[in-house]
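Q: My labmate handed me this sequence with no annotations at all. I'd like to see what the chain might look like in three dimensions before we decide whether it's worth expressing. Could you predict it?
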Amino acid sequence: MEILKTLIKKSDTKIVLIVLDGVGDLPLKNGKTPLEYANTPNLNNLAKKSALGLHIPVDLGITPGSGPAHLGIFGYEPLKINIGRGVLEALGLGLELRETDVAVRGNFATIKYEKGIPIVIDRRAGRISTEENKRLIKYLSQNFSSIEDAQIILRSGMEHRFVVIFRFPYQISYEVETINDTDPQAVGKPPLKPYGKGKMAEKVAKIAEIFCEKVAELLKNESKANYALLRGFSVKPKLETFEEKFGLKACCIATYPMYKGLASLVGMKLIEFEGMNIKDEIETLKFQWNNFDFFFVHIKKTDSAGEDGNFEMKVKIIEEFDMLLPEILSLNPSVLCITGDHSTPCILKSHSWHPVPVLINSSYVLGNTSERFTEREALKGELGIFYAYKLMPLLLAHAQRLKKYGA
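A: Here is what I predict for the chain of 407 residues:
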């Protein structure tokens, strides 16, 4: 997409990208998906006047993590860039990463011992409160701050999530990203032992193993959060910024650290605000309206409901967004895009490979092809099915920010 840079032109148009995380789904109740089951009069009305389609987050049949899924909708080819989950979480929490750091995402978890072997019975420790998380992180930080020559930096995230940074007195190579997650991704199984390929990766893996042992010992009397599972061993990559790539002054309005981290990594300005719900995010969007060209608004709870297999909750969140949609439309954005980063079907309780519905509203759509913003109605739309990293050129074109190619 290098040709895109030669076509970009300045404009005062504004683009809003709303990401309903994990919004795509499969039929479960009365043969309907949550989008089909939900009462969404505002989305329905908008869909009739918009261009609809489906995007493929990475490639056919590939289930994406949140990192590659968001990279795709931000216009970066996810198969060419791999950003570890640890880096995203750390940046999202406002931590500065150095070339000497290994960042890892942690989950507080619940285990029980069977013949001396730890068995995971809840990978998220019952989604403990963020306040409880902070208490645990403070306690751990007070009881150990280093392992061998690595400084241990801990920071609380949302609910059961946290970040650990292993900071060394020397530069770390990308080989540490070969270290496997310790999360077995299922209950009833023991945590996995971390292994790495290469001398440095083996060293970091051993330190990570000791870290988990220390945490287990310190938290052995906790009823819920008595263990730590580690995911996404990673080092900070170098990426072309969003403004360099697309000529847009962009901001991120999100509540969860990982998505702030990804936005920060591509150079979006992170907007701090009070509150955690959709209305708070939309109020922040309105307050920042005159300050940016591009607004990335991330809504997390659709994904959380999908991962919990909670069909009714996913419907409820979709309906809540629908009620607030007129407030976004009142800003009269030049381009409004509503989509998800990936699908999270309630029946699977996890991310999936299924294409994700996309809606683009601007003055330059064909429209009148779809009746609702749903998976099946999106199949009727003018956008067809396309790869997620092709979304940004479409948004730029609809915003009149691309010149003609060739004579």
